[in-house]
From TrEMBL:
Pfam families: TRAPPC13_M, TRAPPC13_N. Residues 158-258 form the Trafficking protein particle complex subunit 13 middle domain. Signal peptide: none annotated. It comes from Trichomonascus ciferrii. Residues 34-154 form the Trafficking protein particle complex subunit 13 N-terminal domain. One of its GO terms (cellular component) is TRAPPIII protein complex. It comes from the Eukaryota. Transmembrane segments: none annotated. This is Trafficking protein particle complex subunit 13. InterPro entries: TRAPPC13, TRAPPC13_M, TRAPPC13_N.
Amino acid sequence: MASPSPVHSHPVNLKVLRLSRPHIGEADVASEDPTPSTLLSLPASFGQVYVGETFSCILSINNVSETPHDVALDASVQLPSQSHVSLIHADLPTSNHRVEARKHTQQTLSYEAQEPGLHILTITVSYRRPADDEGSAGAGGAWTTFRKHYQFNAAPGLSVKTKMSAYDNTGHTVEAQIENVSAHTMTLETAEFLPLDGWRVDQFPRISMQPLAPRDVHQTAFLAVRESSSLSAAMGKISISWRRDPVGQKGWLTTGVLRLPQHL
């Protein structure tokens, strides 16, 4: 009986470590086999990602051989909408590295999650022996490439509901209910109304470091006043910032454009 073919071992390998703010627990490194088709889930220690938060990780490229190698990286994220966002492009100088024998190099990736659902991070590593590596077979030749896939889910963290009512001839109140729909305590840092041209806005009262336990709701209100020369019904957007737990991950959320209903 023929023995199974051995798995190809690359002289360059890849490890991924998520960067996050302090929390209770131990970080872990994701290190996987080099099979290009393998789809890998990030370990539990990578934690939850909420829409509006920035997912950051370190790529560690390790040269486990006895000769130097040129390494080029390409990284992208496939969004739940099936579109792709490029994080590193292999043609850029910053994506190219010379990694000496038995050494490693690192690069940081960051992506702000803007859609709820499954995200797939794809990292492509290409390597070859450098052209100035005299006497080495294959030096400066064709690139060898392998690809790793990682998946993580982005869940909604805060939910915003709005209600409008007439205040006077030119002013309208915009009430906002901000609910913590996550499994973590969120500290609400700011909630601001960003008016469009033709409107000015006051808030009463202003938010200052308001903690929200899971399922808690915070209510705030704005007074939007139409400028005398404006006919625009597009009032503006509500922008919210928070921090997960007292010193945890920061996040930002902006609503769509709020429009004045016709009956008002």
